[in-house]
Write a structure and sequence with these properties.
The protein has about 450 residues and is mainly beta. It contains four helices and 20 strands.
Length: about 450
């Protein structure tokens, strides 16, 4: 069973300066004729600054092994082998906070999504029983925001509601990622979303301090929505504009009890679960070598006290922008997964039915053979290290599509168990057993945005 996992952030504010000049003391020339009155400019109030946007993402991930269960192990969002999927149909309505506004400012964002990604990202008990199809609905974000000015600082940005986690290098919105497939870190080592309150204190142009409380990992609010203890804590810091403005660092953590407690109907509930916490730690370091080449490095660790289980790793991205149409991204990752006690088979696990993701969060049991845990469904402890190399490109055709834009992202990926206890999780056969320690996929998605 995959445990609850979820997951970027507010920018610093800058103030402007005003200059004045003196007039010469010589006699002034005769005044010119009065100018015609200027046309009144359009109002730029709150409602005029609301934006609407969205996109459709569809793709396919080819697997030459053609696994019997049709699953690309280790790839939650691109898990379906050799079959096209509509991953996301996403719509946004928002009013962004103005980063140059030194005064009080308010905003909001609502993002709805339909597609196969929703079965993984949505809150349980929130649209997760509308359908049992792989195509499901999700509210990715629904929050209100405010910027509060503070003397001698760049103020505080506040967020209240449901929002994607700020932890991590990758995001739910496909347009915010350089590649189609996701890392093990994003899939298994991070939260996806939270419900709560989050504050970002912009101490100055360089330092941001983060702090918030929420209901946990993919938890909503209200009776029956979450069956673990409230609240959880999110905290950390950001460093901006280092090394002549080329280096940024974001280091965040999320800590709190996450396992379902033993409640009526929660067949997988854990007695005393709220006495044990799960800890997420993530650091993203971004360095811009020049206008064309950017490096992004992510360090990650997750630990669950009850299961005495630890996972985490490092991912390195290099993106080179060739021109306005083409960019190329290479990504290398190593992710260690160490199970411990109480029959936990590892963070890297692959529920196969559409509702298994949220049923596991509820504490509801589902058939063992429907959740694949790297040949460790028996719950024996193991220590596996997964490696993945991905090379992809982004192509933006120079064609006029009116208000629409098109983006194509082909990629090739190679996954390999690079360490561990003889784990063979890939190429699952008809008996539900993995037969290989490596996997090759070739994939492409298309994103049509407005």
């Amino acid at each position: 069973m995959r445990l609850k996992t979820f997951a970027p952030a507010a920018a610093a504010c800058i103030a402007g300066a005003v200059a004045a000049s003196a007039q010469a003391q010589t006699p002034a020339p005769a005044a010119p004729p009065p100018a015609a009155p200027a046309a009144a400019s359009a109002p730029t109030g709150f409602w005029d600054s609301i934006k609407y946007s969205g996109h459709l993402e569809a793709g396919i991930s080819g697997n030459p092994d053609d696994p019997a269960n049709h699953i690309n192990f280790g790839q939650l969002f691109t898990d379906r082998a050799n079959f096209p999927r509509i991953n996301q149909i996403m719509a946004n309505v928002e009013r962004d906070l103005d980063p140059k506004n030194p005064d009080f400012d308010v905003g909001f964002k609502f993002t709805g999504m339909y597609g196969t990604d929703s079965r993984i990202t949505h809150f349980y008990n929130e649209l997760d029983r509308v359908t049992r199809s792989p195509y499901q609905w999700d509210i990715v974000e629904a929050d209100v925001q405010a910027h509060v000015p503070l003397a001698s600082t760049n103020g505080i940005d506040l967020k209240l509601g449901q929002y994607p986690t700020p932890l991590g290098a990758e995001v739910i919105d496909a347009t915010g990622n350089p590649l189609y497939s996701h890392t093990y870190i994003f899939n298994y080592g991070l939260p996806f979303k939270h419900t709560g309150a989050l504050a970002t204190f912009h101490v100055n142009d360089t330092i941001d301090l983060w702090g918030g409380i929420d209901t946990g990992v993919n938890d909503s609010i209200g009776q029956g929505m979450n069956n673990d203890e409230f609240p959880k804590a999110l905290f950390g810091f950001g460093l901006n504009g280092l090394v002549d403005g080329n280096l940024t660092i974001l280091a965040l953590a999320h800590i709190g009890p996450e396992n379902p407690v033993a409640t009526p109907g929660a067949t997988l509930g854990i007695p005393g679960a709220n006495n044990y916490v799960r800890e997420y730690y993530d650091v993203v370091v971004t360095y811009k070598f020049n206008d064309n080449l950017t490096s992004m490095t992510e360090f990650n660790r997750i630990h669950d006290d009850y299961f005495n289980a630890t996972a985490g790793g490092v991912a390195q991205y290099l993106t080179y922008t060739i021109n306005d149409q083409w960019s190329v991204t290479g990504r290398a990752e190593a992710f260690a997964d160490q199970s411990g006690s109480h029959g936990f088979c590892g963070f890297v696990a692959q529920p196969q039915r559409p509702l298994d993701y949220v049923d596991g969060e509820r504490g509801l049991a589902f058939p063992t053979n429907d959740t694949y845990c790297a040949n460790s469904n028996t719950g024996r402890a193991f220590n596996a290290v997964y490696g993945a190399l991905t090379l992809g490109a982004t192509y933006k055709p120079p064609v006029a599509l009116g208000p629409l834009s098109l983006m194509l992202r082909p990629e090739v990926r190679y996954d390999q168990v690079i360490g561990g206890s003889n784990v063979k999780p890939f190429d699952i056969n008809a008996s539900g057993v993995g037969t290989k320690s490596n996997q090759f996929t070739i994939a492409m998605d298309a994103i049509l945005a407005f």
